[in-house]
Amino acid sequence: MDRVEQMQAFVAVVDTGHFVTAADALGLSKAAVSRAVNGLEARLGVRLLHRTTRRLSLTNEGEIFLGRCRQILAELEAAEGEVGERRAEASGRVRVNAPVSFGVQHLAPLWGAFRAQHPGVELEVILSDRLVDLVDEGFDLAVRIGRLASSSLVGRQLASTRLRVCAAPEYLDAHGRPAHPRDLPGHAVIAYSYSAAGDDWTLEGPDGAVTVTTRPVMRSNNGDTCIAAAVAGQGIVLQPGFLLHPWRADGRLEEVLPGWEAPALGIHAVYPSRRHLLPKVRVLIDFLARRVGERSVDW
């Protein structure tokens, strides 16, 4: 593999969290992906990943190199996109799927600017927190938040977010403020129905990573609904920073367990295939890559 392919393999392993799922995403064997990452580490003379039987994590050098890899790969894709745009004008309908709250708060303000730049592209934006099947349901592009599952889809990271534990001050005054994640099972929790981890919350802090099983008193498939219940003093939520920011800023929600953090989640644009990507889809992906980070508020 050349350097670019090694970088792509390294980024895919980090994004998916596993060599096997990275291999699936890239259409390669697990052995080929492992050789690529090992070759990259050998050439650099540093270890980029800590490997255990249970998980992968970045070294300090890996964290630094990951950022540079993302920049290089994004620039390369943008350069290819510019050449592609010269071959064919971006036009036609693009069907886009995105999560409801993120789509309303952070994507909706961008569509006008995109259409002004590319008037030949017709947008159909479908908001749903359900994990849609892009191919079967006819979507050209989806914005997804979290770790990318093993699939044939291609993903480009637009930004990242971190889940935060929050509750209304009134709830905490009445029921006490948890001092450790192990205190959470004794509290009312408002759960997000589509959470990949179910009722298990994992937080990292001074004691390392701690996973606890919470006891929800309410569930919803929409983050804003969960937050509204928390603002009303009904319990504790674990939601992305971009949704919680305005409520934390005006004091109606308070961060619980400061010093403990949930793992970061990627905000990705995913699409069925990198080969023969139509100009109308490529220009939209490039636009989102530029603009989503610019609008980030307390991701």
Descriptive key words:
two-stranded antiparallel sheet, Arc Repressor Mutant, subunit A, seven-stranded mixed beta sheet, alpha/beta, 299 residues, single chain, D-Maltodextrin-Binding Protein, domain 2, 13 strands, 9 helices
Your description of this structure?
It is a single chain. With about 300 residues, this protein is of the alpha/beta class. Among the domains are: about 80 residues, Arc Repressor Mutant, subunit A (Orthogonal Bundle), CATH 1.10.10.10; about 100 residues, D-Maltodextrin-Binding Protein, domain 2 (3-Layer(aba) Sandwich), CATH 3.40.190. The chain is built from nine helices and 13 strands. The strands form four sheets. Strands 3, 4, 5, 6, 11, 12 and 13 form a seven-stranded mixed sheet that branches. A two-stranded antiparallel sheet has the order 1-2. Strands 7-10 form a two-stranded parallel sheet. Helix 1 crosses helix 4. The longest helix is centred in the first third of the chain and has 28 residues. The chain starts with a helix and ends in a 5-residue tail after the last helix. The mean pLDDT is about 90.
Principal-axis shape equals globular
Largest sheet: 7 strands, mixed
Low-confidence stretches: none
Strand content: 25-35%
Please compute the radius of gyration using only Cα atoms.
20 Å
Task: Please provide the ordered H/E string of secondary-structure elements.
Answer: HHHEEHEHEEEHEEEEHEHEEH
Number of helices: 9
Question: What gap, in angstroms, lies between the N and C termini?
Answer: 35 Å
> What structural class should be given to the helix and strand makeup?
alpha/beta
CATH names the topology of the domain at 162-263 as: D-Maltodextrin-Binding Protein, domain 2
Give the CATH architecture of the domain at 162-263. Answer: 3-Layer(aba) Sandwich
What would CATH call the class of the domain at 162-263? Alpha Beta
Helical proportion, percent range? 40-55%
| Secondary structure: number of strands | 13
Task: Provide mean pLDDT, rounded.
Answer: 89
